[in-house]
Design a protein that fits this description.
Elements: H1 2-11, H2 17-27, H3 33-70, E1 74-77, E2 80-83, H4 84-113, H5 116-133, H6 142-165, H7 167-170, H8 176-204, H9 212-235, H10 249-265, H11 268-298, H12 303-331, H13 333-359, H14 365-393, H15 400-429, H16 432-461
Antiparallel strand pairs: 1-2
């Protein structure tokens, strides 16, 4: 289909609009609803990790059991002592860094052999096993928790690059915002269901000294992830490649990244967009990954209130993602992203003063609820719109996995820097409040680059 699209793009000037319209609709169509829903079901499957493990239960569990096991927030590891919340940040950053290094190799193999689905399966199962293995982490066996958590994180981000690479293969450019938003919406619904199951387990087993409530929840997340992913694996078609796999996988992989980098350098709008995406992703991803630690440790809110709050965030995020998709059709992707980044900056400022209000003896509970609703409105939308914007700006190519590898590599390195900076600033200053304020810098730089991309896009189209 992509070959046909290139022909029409090249010779479109010699065809009338009617013939182009008929030809495109005949030969290039967005996949059936069955395939679209099957693709989106992977979001339903793996988003339980993102919500239940990284956003809600595990950050609270990790800080609670390590403090209980060692009698202090200072956790011994490798001959040093770390603040437990900072150690959590460093562990997550390390997992993302490792998988980011592997991206070029894996996606190069996937592109040349047409086996994206096999790699997606591998990382899916690794992540699911990692989630379930957290059942055995009880605080004192710190290495079990770190290794299982890194497996879960690496499985999650590793499978996403192949999942994202299917988007331009199953949806036309004009449908990609809608299809991308559907994936995120499926993810929010599925993760909220698993979240509620976990909440019930935590409440029912609240008095258990072995923390069985969250531990069983971790076990169920792994089963949920691997189980529902079978729908995607069974129904989403694999794109076959005729290209033979040549050369060493390592050199071929990094050569592919270099090739994509070379193409991006010659695409002024895409180049500026990726720079903006890199910086604002540092802020967005860090907020989402550290929000529960902020509410639990800094604001000292009860665990049950935090869990309910996260459920509210997910529910608000569903209409938020759909609304942002529709706004992009009216105002354009870059303008909507710029507006959302300004909103994120206001959220960071509000979070800083919420923590300040707590330090002055106030009750920040309802302020935190308001912040959570605000985060939910823009959380899913900015992820969905960022993915579809990149899909629109990238050139027509069969090497979709390599291009999305570059996209995910950009995002994951941003997460590594963002999470490490967040944890390091807390250790350096002794206050997570300062870490929150520092995120504004990332958002501001991202906004400047998006503004530059918009101006360049307007100059090229004008």
């Amino acid at each position: 289909m992509q070959h046909i699209f290139r022909l029409f793009k090249r010779y479109g000037g010699y065809l009338n609009k009617c013939s182009i319209f008929i030809a495109i609709n005949r030969f290039m169509q967005t996949a059936s609803k069955k395939i679209i829903n099957a693709w989106a079901m992977y979001d339903w499957a793996n988003s339980t990790y993102n919500l239940v493990i990284t956003t809600t239960f595990f950050p609270i569990y990790f800080t609670a059991v390590t403090k209980h096991a060692f009698g202090t927030e200072q956790v011994p590891l490798l001959g040093k002592r770390f603040i437990n919340s900072s150690l959590y940040d460093y562990t997550l950053a390390a997992a993302y860094f490792i998988i980011a290094l592997l991206y070029p190799i894996l996606t190069s193999i996937a592109d040349t052999r047409g086996n994206k689905k096999n790699f997606m399966r591998f990382f899916c199962y690794m992540g699911a096993i990692g989630c379930s293995a957290l059942y055995f982490f009880r605080g004192d066996n710190i290495w079990v928790g770190i290794i299982a958590f890194m497996m879960a994180a690496a499985g999650y981000v590793g499978s996403l690059v192949f999942y994202n690479a299917f988007l331009p293969e199953i949806a036309l450019p004009q449908d990609q915002d809608r299809v991308s938003a559907r994936g995120f919406s499926f993810g929010y619904v599925g993760s909220v269901i698993m979240q509620l199951i976990g909440f019930v387990l935590v409440v029912l087993l609240a008095d258990d000294p072995n923390y069985l409530g969250p531990r069983i929840t971790f076990l169920l997340v792994g089963i949920w992830w691997a189980g529902f992913a079978q729908i995607t694996f069974a129904r989403v078609p694999e794109t076959k490649r005729d290209t033979a796999a040549n050369g060493n996988a390592f050199t071929t992989g990094f050569r592919a990244v270099k090739k994509v980098y070379g193409e991006v350098r010659n695409m002024p709008v895409l180049k500026r967009y990726l720079r903006g995406f890199f910086f604002y992703s540092m802020g967005v991803q860090t907020v989402m990954l550290a929000a529960t630690l902020f509410g639990s440790k800094l604001l000292q809110l009860a665990d049950t209130k935090l869990i309910i709050t996260v459920v509210i965030i997910q529910l608000v995020a569903i209409p938020g993602a759909v609304c942002m998709s529709r706004l992009s059709n009216v105002f354009g992707n870059l303008k909507v992203l710029m507006g959302v980044i300004i909103f994120w900056i206001l959220i960071c400022i509000a979070a800083y003063f919420t923590a300040y209000y707590k330090m002055r003896g106030g009750n920040p509970e309802y302020l935190f609820y308001a912040l959570s609703v605000a985060v939910g409105l823009v959380m899913g939308g900015i992820q969905s719109l960022s993915r579809s914007t990149y899909s629109k700006l990238m050139p027509e190519t069969e090497d979709t996995a390599s291009f999305f590898s570059y996209y995910d590599l950009t995002e994951k390195i941003a997460i590594v820097i963002g999470m490490f900076a967040f944890g390091y600033i807390e250790e350096l200053t002794g206050n997570m409040q300062n870490s929150v304020l520092s995120l504004i810098v990332f958002f501001a730089v991202g906004f400047i680059w998006l503004f530059s991309a918009l101006k360049k896009q307007q100059s090229l189209s004008g």
